[in-house]
Amino acid sequence: MTDFLKEHATTLVALFTVVVAFGGTWLGAKVQAGGGVVQARAAKEAAETAAAATLQAVREQADHTAAAAHAAAMHDQRTSAITNLLRTVREFTRAVHALFREPDTGAAENAYNELVHAWGVVELVAPTALTAASARIVETATNFERLARRRGEAYRAWRQVTGIPGYLPEYEDANRAASALLAFRAAYESDADNMMDPRNEASEALARIPNLTPEQRSALLNDCMRPEIGPLLDQCWREHSEAMTEFINHARTILGVND
User: Fold this and answer.
1) Which residues in 68-78 are b (16+ Cβ under 10 Å) and which e?
2) Among 173, 166, 228, 225, residue whose Cα is nearest residue 204
3) Residue 129, pLDDT above cutoff 50
């Protein structure tokens, strides 16, 4: 064996060198391959983490955009509902004012129907504070209408009686009728023992005014047994104005337009 090794020493050394070199190359390749797998896994995990973060950011951005779009749409809806309610309530009160100047033409009823519809929209889209304020302006507006329908005819007739110019022949009769009506009202308010005589005098005085219809005369006489309409008109309008101010203040706050 010794002789064999001596004879082939050179060959064996060369072969050993090749084996060692191959082993080193293989081991290096294996280590490098192992490192590549670890590196690839780390890269994959990093990519997945980055993708998840990107997806979450996209979702958050989408949610933010959707929330902003919803807020903008709600703001537009509330603005439209508020302005429409203000428009219809003003149209309604104008129609009610007309009832004190001329017989009903149906305009007040039509305006009221539009007001109720506009109010319903406000109740759907507005916060509780604003819906409560809107209910108040509708209530005060309808109180005003109720007064106009109960007392409007007498109010118009009274203006007709007291509005006759002094140069017309019927002025003296109109003046006596107005005085008789005031006397009847005073007797009723004081709960006088005898109210029939003042009433009869007022009725006779009204009968001498040819332009008054029987319905107008009756309305004037009946109105004398009710509180004076002037203070009631002032109260109705004051309450409505206060309700409108409250509603507008709430609306400005909700819409973000307060100074």
Assistant:
1) eeeeeeeeeeb
2) 173
3) yes
What 3-state DSSP class applies to 148? helix
Judge whether 93 and 240 are in contact, CB under 8 Å: yes
Report the candidate in 165, 176, 158 with the shortest Cα–Cα distance to residue 233: 158
Asked if 200 and 184 count as a contact pair (C-beta separation under 8 A), the reply is no
Question: What is the per-residue pLDDT across 103-122, written as a single tens digit (0 to 9) for each?
Answer: 989 999 999 999 999 999 99
Asked if residues 149 and 99 have their Cβ atoms less than 8 Å apart, the reply is: yes
Could you tell me the two tokens for 246? 């409250």
For 179-226, how does the pLDDT look when each residue is reduced to its tens digit (9 = 90+)? 999 999 999 999 888 889 999 999 999 999 988 999 999 999 999 999
Residue 56 half-sphere exposure toward CB, CA atoms < 13 A = 6
